[in-house]
Amino acid sequence: MSTATTPAPTSVSTAPGGDRNRLLRWWPAAVLVLLIVAPWSALPLPGLLDGPVGSPGSLQLLATCLLFGALATGYDLLLGRTGLLSFGHALYFAAGSYATNMFLLEAGLPFAAAAVLGVCSGAALALVLGSVSLRVTGIGFSMVTLAFAQAGSILVSRDPGGFTGGEEGRAAPAELLPSWLVGIDHTANLYWIALAYLVLTLAVVHRAVRSPTGRVWEGIKENERRVEVLGLKPYGFKLTAFVLAGALAAAGGLVHLLLTGGSTPRTTTSDFTLSLLVMVVLGGTGTRWGPMVGGILYTWADHRLGDLAGSGAVAGLPAVLRVPLSQPLFLLGVLFVAVVHLLPGGLARLPSRLRRTREENR
Amino acid sequence: MSTIVLLTMTGLGLGALYFLVASGLSLIFGLMDVLNFAHGALLSIGAYGTWWAASGRLPGAGPGGWGFALAVLFGTAVGTLAAVVLELAVVRPLYTRPREQVLATVGVGLAVPALLSGIWGPDARTFPGPEALSGTFALLGADVPVDRLVLVAAAVAVLVALRLFLGRTRHGLVVRAGVEDRAMVTALGIDVRKAFTLVFAIGGCAAALGGALGGLYFGSVDPHQGTSLLIFAFVVVVTGGMGSVTGAAVAAVVIGLVQQFANYYTAAGLGDLAVVVLLAALLLVRPRGLTGRLA
């Protein structure tokens, strides 16, 4: 992963055909407009979605996809931009969700205040734990972040003091939330919130990696020793990336709380962080759109594979095929190994790889 | 007094289990820079292999006497084989890309427990063990379960065997040298890749043995046992200093004891937290772990 980064496939060259390319440059805006108007659409997408795009069920799934696309983008700030392989990212996501929920339930704060405090708690936790775990480098850092996340997971599931609801999780109080965020009739609002979170995350990550700090992150990823030789202390820069990613994850936890109507201990498990990792690597680390695409695809695949597992077509298969097909995690795990082996750079590098192969064959 | 003896023995048993997982993890990491996320899966494979054989599905194996020994042998062999396959099929093709080797093992670590739970169900299965090992013996006034002793004995045997192998054999010399400086060993014309497969086999063997005996210790097997033990094994590896087998042994004992005592004298579950706090404290004082070794 320390190989030089080739330009993202979306970057437009100034080669001939400039007019077409100038138009192509606006595709993200076009996609965004499409996504904004999606809730009013009654277009059926058979195979992709169960109902028409604008139905609450489809919107819920789409919102979850967008949420995880954003979450993977934020996580890539560590993995793809700074070269930090954190296995504890779920902790900050869960912290955002649980802290907001607790400020609502226990302190009785209004929603806006609880949300702000919840995200700040997640960032503060990232600051404290990041400052400890960044004392070790390389894979040691990965293991320490994992250990902290595990501690968080244990704390949530053992539930001392009765704040987290243990294995059951804790439902968000519908009566304390603004009415336009509650109920199946308002799924579109939640969808727009998820979309706004995605746009925010993309903007923050995009801005951050192009800032002077972002250049240092890139340097740390390529060669940390060299950054030190230049007289910069990597620790502070790494901590900045860690806290920023933690804050983004905590905001994602807040969106998840609204979307699912509660906090669930599943979001604290190491499997959850590993699935984030799968999303980022699937899409392509260190690219602008890759992690987002990976997150969206993974979430959609996870959901559809779950449906597939329960479907009659799978139940009729012989055991050799039925057993693996009924386990979405098995399929995703195998898919992940395949992507790592066969598709270095993930989906985002696929177009440029194909182009290169075509040119070589010419 | 009897409580302290019992807690100590239980802590040592748990520590022995951690060591069985962590020793292979530590060697693989030291030699290849690969944090093997599939190591917990190897443990689960060993545990399920033993459970499968001991439940009477393998001729000659069974829940008692030599039949159980054969079951453990079978489970360990299956785990070792799985480790070799893992190295050859998944890890070796990514030889020059350590980061992606780690990622590939993550995929295996997700897939194997899912497959196990697909085949034998997501719930825990009762683990059959010999009568002789389910009893207790008196030690300083405490009734200590025999399985603790079996675990400690197995861990000591593995530690001694590993030290003899690493210190007295030519292959061990290559592995040790590879842990210290992989580039230099390669430059001397020695194929480190053979050492990789060997270390994976050894690590898988220890982990699978840990799985087989862990089934005895917990009384059951479930698909996610390996993953949860793996996380504590990571803590042991970091605490002990990465790549050091002796460091892993010391750290495993310390962490097993701390966890048991804290779980008993405070609330259950706080012991697991205490271990992580211990790790954080150690890193603040000595970022390189107990033995001062760093990746």
pLDDT < 50 runs, ≥5 residues of chain A: 1-15
Separate helix tally of chain B: 12
- Our estimate of the beta-strand percent of chain B is under 5%
Taken from the alpha-carbon principal axes, the silhouette of chain B is globular
Compute the number of strand runs of chain B.
4
What best-fitting shape of chain A do the alpha-carbon axes yield? globular
* Mean of residue pLDDT values of chain A: 82
Give the % helix of chain A. 55-70%
Order of helices and strands of chain A: HHHHHHEHHHHEHHHHHH
Give the structural class of chain B: mainly alpha
The strands making up the biggest β-sheet of chain B line up spatially as: 1-4
Summarize the biggest pleated sheet of chain A. 2 strands, antiparallel
Radius of gyration of chain B: 19 Å
Q: List SSEs of chain B in N-to-C order.
A: HHHHEHEEHHHHEHHH
Number of helices of chain A: 16
Spans where pLDDT lies below 50 across 5 or more residues of chain B: none
In total, the number of strands of chain A is 2
Strands of the widest sheet of chain A, in order across it, are 1-2
Q: Rounded to an integer, what's the Rg of chain A over CA atoms?
A: 21 Å
End-to-end gap of chain A: 29 Å
Residue fraction in strands of chain A: under 5%
What can you see in these coordinates?
The complex is a heterodimer of chains A (362) and B (295). With 362 residues, chain A is mainly alpha-helical. Chain A is built from 16 helices and two strands. In chain A, strands 1-2 form a two-stranded antiparallel ribbon. In chain A, α7 packs across α8 and α12 packs antiparallel against α15 (328-342). Chain A is globular and about 55 Å long. Residues 1-15 of chain A have low confidence and may be disordered. Chain B is mainly alpha-helical and 295 residues long. Chain B contains twelve helices and four strands; from the N terminus they run ααααβαββααααβααα. Chain B has helices at residues 2-32, 39-57, 65-91, 98-120, 131-134, 146-168, 170-180, 182-187, 192-218, 225-240, 245-265, 270-285, and strands at residues 125-126, 136-139, 142-145, 220-221. In chain B, the strands form two sheets. Chain B has a two-stranded antiparallel sheet. In chain B, a hairpin with a 2-residue loop joins β2 (136-139) and β3. In chain B, α1 packs antiparallel against α9 (192-218). The radius of gyration of chain B is 19 Å and the shape is globular. The model of chain B has no long low-confidence stretch (mean pLDDT 83). Classes of the chains: A mainly alpha (362), B mainly alpha (295). Chains A and B meet through α6, α11 and α15 of A and α4, α10 and α12 of B.
